[in-house]
Amino acid sequence: MLSSTTSDFCTLPGEVSSTPIMKTSPTRIQNHVIQTISELVPSRPVTPKIFPAPQTRKDSSPRRLTLVESNDANNRALSPEQSSFVDDNDPEIANVVLDDEFVVPKTNGFRVVVQKIQVLQKWIRGTKEPKEPVRPDSFLEKFALGGRMDGEKNEKEMKIKSVLIYFDGQLIFIVVLCLFSFVIDTSKNFYYYWLLVITIAVLYNTLMVIGRSVFWKLQNLMPSVWLVMDYVCDVVYIIDMVINAHKGFLEQGLMVRDLNRLRLNYTKSGPILWDILSILPTDLLYIHLGITCEDNQCPCPVIVRLNRVLRFPRMLEFFDRTETRTNFPNVLRILKVIIYILILIHWNACFYFVISYEIGFSSDNWVYSPNRTKDAGTLAHMYIYSFYWSTLTLTTIGETPQPEKDAEYIFVVCDFLVGVLVFATIVGNIGSMISHMNAARAEFQTRMDGVKQYMELRKVGKDLEQRVIQWFDYLWTNKQLLDENAILTSLPDKLKAELAIHVHMGTLRRVRIFQDCEAGLLVEIVLKLRLQVFSPGDYVCKKGDVGKEMYIVKRGRLTVVADDGHTVFATLGDGSVFGEISVLNIAGNKTGNRRTANVRSVGYSDLFCLSKDDLWDALTEYPEAKRMLFEKGREILLKDNLIDLDAVKRKELDDQSDAEKIKRLETDVDVLQTRLARLLAEFVSGQEKMKQRVVYLERHLDEEKRVRLVMGVDGKS
Strand (E) positions, 5-80? Predict the structure, then answer.
């Protein structure tokens, strides 16, 4: 029943479904119950008889299941949605009525599902008396659960109850599937922690089921505790099936959250077969075999739970996910291999003990002998000796007693084959993992050996050679031999940028000229930072050198010293920045973009380096940020009185493009034309005024001449 498609027998809470709650009809379920009961008791040709349905009502409307109200005298019929899983015309369930204990108030999605299950359980048990007196059936009366029976009938009663409990367990599982409408994201922590829980349950069943089946003293040590733990693991298995039915999956890069599709995907997957087989109620065989294990009984009845081991792939999934999450994958791989080896040796030890039991203890030197020592009959000695024998045989590294019987030879040959094949594979994997763990050390040693050979070939002095070797040792001690570019090559640019921002952004924001820059430029610059390591006494830069890089101190201590190398002007620590102005190549810098001081490393110092070329490549795509950087650089130089403003202007003119120059010429021409027009207007105005003055003067002169002429004529006369 559990293997049916979930979407066919389950509806979400609150939904109204017209489909049956199970594909299997109630009639088929009841017939299956009766058939199972018939197999448990001596069969005889008796036809089971079902209580007849009440007389058909006068109206032709189909009969519905009634719900008894506690306060109302009248019965209220269930709605069609609530009774959609029941065949209204089925005479076998026509007279199933709920007792007062099953009264459900105002129905909703949850109560509807619970009510359906209660009705179905009530119908399967068949304990409700019919409304009308009917002739009791001899078959059902004989096996009625409430009557007085003798010892044999009580045993049959327990068997029948076990069958009914099995059906109730299936119904409960269906209810759980229907009620929970969550979706589990397998990438979240919840799913990983659940894998840890199911792994513990699987590991318990893998070790203890076979162990308790073979070593009867282990089974009888604390049977109540084993029983509780067994069924706790069964509950974990059932919950695991529910989680698998609600496990989301990706489709076109998006998480699918449709519950029907999730359940359908689970029912069509391969793991559901193993999940169902691992939870089959094989414990029902306890009815025939019993639960307790007698002394010297092998195997014990708990062997019927061996199907619980089929959930082993869930433990493999947990190890795979842990390997991707841990920072120590090599350690986990070795631990995983050790666990597999111990499980294999444990199972082989159990096989050895049970074969010794079947052949007969102490029958020869090969089998286990409980009389070998004083403590040989204890549980600890039984298991330790079997485990010891299994270890020697599978690893083929020790001497074991010679087999004497054919069965013993066959078992030993099989063990040798398993040991050769399995352990050869395991040892090979361990060797590969160990060599992989030492790969970094081997690569480092190869590099250092190459440098040593080069220095030996070129006759390098011992002092310099010692400094080089110490530099390599420092890199190895601080794990700085990683090629970051090679490691991050497989990542997309987006993730690579986020990693670089996480590592370097805090350091980069300490640089004054990069403060308030847009994020895009900072990302470009962060991706171009390179780590450099300087040894004690190394000069990072010297006064007068052309500045081609800027430096950010990650770790270490540096000093600004005079030319003599002894006078210390300043000390630089973690987060200090120097050389940032020189990489901008600002025009008018009085130092000519050369270093103005000597910077020397006191001890081993780790510095992030940004070259001038990398910075300018990044600035080509951000012209506005470039302008802001240059303005900040000029402000810093102006504050320190290290900039020539005239040179800045000349540089600005030289750096102008042809379009800017043409535009500037056009502006100058417009200004000249305006000035010429104004001058021309002034010239014309001056000419008019001049003409007026000339005319005025001419008139004045003419009048004076006329006056003189008149005065001269008067004098002569």
Answer: 66-67, 76-77
